[in-house]
Design brief:
By secondary structure, the chain is mainly α. Among the domains are: 74-221, no CATH class; 298-344 and 356-516, no CATH class. 47% of the residues lie in helices and 9% in strands. It has helices at 4-11, 37-55, 63-81, 85-94, 99-108, 110-117, 158-171, 191-197, 200-216, 266-277, 280-289, 341-348, 353-404, 413-437, 444-471, 473-476, 485-511, and strands at residues 58-61, 132-134, 141-143, 147-148, 156-157, 221-223, 232-235, 243-245, 251-253, 290-292, 299-301, 308-310, 318-320, 543-545, 548-550, 563-565, 572-574. The chain has a three-stranded antiparallel sheet. Strands 2-3 form a two-stranded antiparallel ribbon. Strand 16 (563-565) and strand 17 (572-574) form a beta hairpin. The protein is extended. The two termini are 23 Å apart. It is an enzyme of class 2 (transferase).
C-alpha cells in the first residue's frame, strides 16, 4: 500500500470492502470519530490527485504551446550558433527538432553539417554583370530583377520558381526540405525564399507543415490520436508508464498510440485487436458449426430438421448429415430420417475421431474466445456509458445538488472523482480479459489467482458504480437538504479510495506477470501487503481487503521454514520477526 493510512483502512475488519456488506461500517471515515471528517476526505482527495499530477510524465500542448516551444528552439539555435533564423529551422528540421543533437553535430564538424543540410557558405555559380540572364528551367532571357536563386547562385526566373515551390508545397510536407532545382545541387531553399515567391495559400500550407513537423518529427512529441483532437503530447519516458490522458478525455498508450491498455503490454494489445478484426474466428465458427458437402465441399450449417441434407444448386447432392454418405444408401434399415446406424458403427470404429476432434477443438476455441470478447466489449460499453454519465453529472447534476443541499460545487467534486475512477477502472477491467485470454492454460496457479483477483475487482467496482449511480438518485430527487448526505459523501469517498488502491495494486501485479505465484500456487515473496501476487493461495479461500490478498495457509512453521504465517491475520512474516508486521501480534 502507499501509506500507513491506506494500510490501516484496508485491514480494518469493520470495513471489509469486498465482504458484500453494502453499509461497509466505514469506521475509518466516521464523522463521530473525527468532527473534521468532511474536510479530511476533500483534502485527501486533493492530495492524491495533486500527487498524481506531479508524477505525470507528459505535458499536453495546444497550438499556441507548440508554436511557442518551436520559436524558443529556433531562437536558441540561432543565438548559440550565430546563424540566421532560416538556417536554424533547416538544422532543426534535419535533426528532428533536437537542440542537443544540433549542438553536438555542429560543434563536432560544422563544414560537414553545412554540406549535409544544404547551407552553403559560398555560391556555386557567381552572377555576371549582364542586364539579362537565362533561366535554367524555361531557357528564356529575363531581366536581373526577375531572376532569383538560392545560396548556390543557380539562376531561375520568378515564374519558374513560383511553379516549382507551389508544386512542392502541394505535394506535401516534403517541401520543408526543398532543394535547388538543379539535380546535382544540394542547396536548400529556405522559408524566406518560399514566403517571397509563394501565394498566400501556399505560404499558409508551408507554415502549417512547419508547425506540424515540430510534433511529427520530434521523438518526444505525438499528436493525440482521438478524432478531431488538435492537441499534442510531450512525453518524458521516466517511470515506464506509457499511459497518456489528453485534455479531450481520450487516453492512449504513448508507445503504440492505441487506447490506454494497462496492465496489458503493447504486443498483447496488437494480437488482441488483430484477432478481433481477423477472419480466424469466422473460420473457427464455420469449422465448429458446419460440415462440408461430400461432393462440392461447400460448408453447410444444420440448424433443424432431419438428417437428410440436400446441397444448394447447382450441386444438389443428397447426403446424410451424420455419416456424410449418399442418402440413396440410407433408409429405414439405417435408422430412418433422424438417426444413422452407419454413423454409430463407424464412430465406434474410430472412423470419425479426427474430424470430430478437430470440430470439438474449434468449438472450444470459439467458446473461449467468445467468453473473453463479450466481457471485454461489455466493459467497453459500460465505460462509454460512464463517460456519458460523467458529462451529465458535470453539466447538470452537480449544479442541482449544490442548490438542493446548499453546498458549494467545489465541495461536490468527490462525486466527479468517483466517476473518473469508475471510468478508469472499467478500462483496466476491460483489458484484464485480453490478459486472461493470453494467459497460458498450463499455468493453473496463475490462472486461478488471476481469476480471483479479477472477480474481486469486478465486485468492488460494481459497489462503487452502484453507489455513484443508484444511491445518488435519492439526493438528486430530494426536495431539500438531507442529513444523510454527509454519510453518503463519506461512503462514496471511501469506496473511491479503496477501489483506487485495489486497482493500482492489481495493475502492478498483472504487469509483473503475477511473478509472486509459483507453479504450486503459493506466494514466493516475503510480503502480502498488496495485490501484486502476494497470496499463499489463489483460490476463493483468500480474503481481499482493500487491496490486500490474505492467505489461508497453515499458521504453523517448521524449523526449516524461512517465514511464518501469523495465526491472527495470516500475514507472511520473515522467520527472524517475533511480532507480526501487519497486526503486531506476538508470534
Amino acid at each position: 500500500m502507499d501509506s500507513e493510512d491506506d494500510l490501516h483502512y484496508s485491514t480494518d475488519d469493520d470495513c471489509d470492502f469486498y465482504s458484500g456488506d453494502m453499509d461497509m461500517g466505514m469506521a475509518y471515515y466516521s464523522d463521530e470519530d473525527d468532527p473534521e471528517a468532511e474536510d479530511f476526505v476533500d483534502d485527501d482527495t486533493d492530495d492524491y490527485f495533486e500527487s498524481r499530477r506531479r508524477e505525470q510524465n507528459f505535458t499536453i500542448l495546444n497550438e499556441f504551446d507548440i508554436r511557442q516551444r518551436q520559436e524558443d528552439d529556433i531562437t536558441r539555435i540561432s543565438s548559440v550558433l550565430s546563424i540566421s533564423r532560416v538556417a536554424s529551422i533547416v538544422l532543426l528540421r534535419h535533426f528532428n527538432w533536437s537542440v542537443t543533437k544540433v549542438h553536438d553535430e555542429w560543434f563536432a564538424d560544422e563544414t560537414r553539417v553545412r554540406k549535409l543540410v544544404g547551407l552553403l557558405e559560398e555560391p556555386v555559380v557567381h552572377a555576371s554583370n549582364a542586364r539579362e540572364h537565362t533561366c535554367g528551367i524555361c531557357f528564356e532571357s529575363h531581366p536581373v530583377s526577375r531572376i532569383k536563386s538560392a545560396a548556390c547562385g543557380h539562376p531561375f526566373c520568378a515564374s519558374c520558381w513560383e511553379g516549382y515551390i507551389s508544386t512542392s508545397i502541394n505535394d506535401g510536407p516534403g517541401c520543408l526540405m526543398l532543394r535547388c532545382p538543379v539535380p546535382s545541387c544540394g542547396a536548400v531553399v529556405g522559408q524566406d525564399m518560399v514566403n517571397s515567391l509563394a501565394s498566400n495559400e501556399d505560404r499558409e500550407k508551408y507554415a502549417r507543415y512547419l508547425l506540424r513537423s515540430y510534433v511529427e518529427d520530434n521523438k518526444k512529441t505525438k499528436w493525440c490520436p482521438a478524432p478531431g483532437c488538435e492537441h499534442a503530447v510531450l512525453f518524458d519516458a521516466g517511470n515506464g508508464n506509457y499511459d497518456v490522458s489528453c485534455f479531450c478525455s481520450y487516453g492512449f498508450c504513448w508507445n503504440c498510440t492505441e487506447e490506454a491498455h494497462r496492465p496489458v503490454d503493447c504486443a498483447t494489445v496488437e494480437k488482441w485487436i488483430l484477432k478481433n478484426s481477423a477472419e480466424s474466428e469466422n473460420m473457427n465458427w464455420i469449422l465448429a458449426n458446419s460440415k462440408p458437402c461430400p461432393k462440392c465441399k461447400r460448408p453447410i450449417e444444420k440448424n433443424q430438421g432431419c438428417m437428410h441434407m440436400t446441397c444448394t444448386p447447382p450441386c444438389k447432392f443428397e447426403f446424410c448429415w451424420l455419416c456424410l454418405g449418399a442418402w440413396s444408401d440410407h433408409g429405414e434399415r439405417t435408422g430412418g430420417f433422424y438417426a444413422c446406424n452407419r454413423y454409430e458403427v463407424a464412430k465406434q470404429d474410430g472412423a470419425y475421431d479426427e474430424a470430430e476432434k478437430r470440430r470439438e477443438m474449434a468449438r472450444n476455441s470459439l467458446e473461449r474466445y467468445t467468453h473473453y470478447y463479450e466481457r471485454w466489449a461489455s466493459n467497453q460499453t459500460s465505460r462509454q456509458k460512464a463517460l456519458a454519465d460523467l458529462n451529465q453529472m458535470q453539466n447538470v447534476h452537480i449544479e442541482k445538488l449544490s442548490d438542493i443541499h446548499c453546498t458549494p460545487e467545489s465541495q461536490l467534486k468527490f462525486i466527479t472523482e468517483a466517476w473518473l475512477q469508475i471510468i478508469e477502472c472499467r478500462r483496466v477491467l476491460k483489458w484484464t480479459y485480453a490478459y486472461g485470454y493470453y494467459l497460458p492454460e498450463q499455468e493453473h496457479a496463475k490462472r486461478q489467482f488471476f481469476e480471483y483477483l479479477q472477480g474481486e475487482a469486478e465486485s468492488g467496482l460494481e459497489r462503487l458504480h452502484q453507489c455513484a449511480e443508484k444511491e445518488l438518485l435519492q439526493f438528486l430527487n430530494a426536495e431539500g437538504p438531507s442529513k444523510e448526505f454527509n454519510d453518503f459523501r463519506t461512503k462514496l469517498a471511501g469506496l473511491t479510495s479503496v477501489t483506487r488502491n485495489y486497482f493500482e495494486n492489481l495493475v502492478r501485479a498483472l504487469e509483473n506477470g503475477l511473478s509472486d505465484v509459483n507453479s504450486h500456487g503459493v506466494s514466493s515473496g516475503t510480503s502480502s501487503k498488496s495485490t501484486a501476487g502476494s497470496s499463499s493461495k489463489a483460490g476463493r479461500s483468500g480474503r481481499a481487503k482493500g487491496g490486500i490478498i490474505r492467505t489461508s495457509g497453515s499458521t504453523r512453521s517448521d524449523d526449516n521454514a524461512t517465514h511464518w504465517s501469523c495465526e491472527h491475520c495470516t500475514y507472511v512474516n520473515a522467520r527472524s520477526a517475533t511480532i507480526c508486521e501487519m497486526c503486531h501480534q506476538r508470534h
